[in-house]
Amino acid sequence: MREHMRRAALWARACGAEEGRPFFDVGEYVAPAGRVTYYAKISEGFPRNSPRGILRHHTIGREAETHDEAFTRNLRWEPTEYLRLYALGRNEIDHVEITEIEAAAFIESTTKRLTGS
Predict the structure, then answer these.
(1) Are 87 and 39 spatial neighbours (Cβ–Cβ below 8 Å)?
(2) Taking Cα atoms as reference points, which of 70, 77, 44 lies closest to residue 55?
(3) Hey, is 2 helix, strand or coil?
(4) Do residues 40 and 58 lie in contact, with contact meaning Cβ atoms separated by under 8 Å?
(5) Which of 65, 64, 67, 40 is closest to 53 using CA atoms?
(6) Closest C-alpha among 105, 114, 94 to residue 50
(7) Which pLDDT tens digit goes with each residue over 62-93?
């Protein structure tokens, strides 16, 4: 038990989480688990199965820190303010929650369309 407590103290110090001891979960700091929610941007002519674009919303760690990203024409996830602006009523494009599989299908079809392969 003494060795466990010594190692936990070392990890807590290395992660800057000494206040969490003795009940310190190194996993939350080294590889924070989180929840990812995907959304499809929809409008007239762009239904759920063929959206204008997709977004993902990360909720990470104990403090429920959030990050929003959009899959762009650069074929990568990039930061976006879309969901924050939508919540403020400053966006005219609607969105619906989709599954990870639907998001992957959109990424695959977009990649094929933009690269010609």
Answers:
(1) no
(2) 70
(3) helix
(4) no
(5) 40
(6) 105
(7) 666 788 999 999 999 999 999 988 888 887 78
Q: For residue 74, what pLDDT is reported?
A: 92
Phi then psi for residue 16, to 5 deg, are: 70, 35
Q: Is the preceding peptide bond at 51 cis, omega within 30 degrees of 0?
A: no
Beta bridge partners of 58: 36, 67
**Pair of tokens at residue 4:** 């466990």
Phi, psi dihedral angles at 94 (to 5 degrees): -85, 170
Q: Which amino acid is at 16?
A: G
One-letter amino acid identity for 109?
A: S
What CA–CA distance (Å, rounded) separates 97 from 40? Answer: 6
Q: 70 Cβ partners below 8 Å, 6+ apart?
A: 53, 54, 55, 77, 78, 80, 82
Q: How many CB atoms lie within 10 A of CB 64?
A: 9
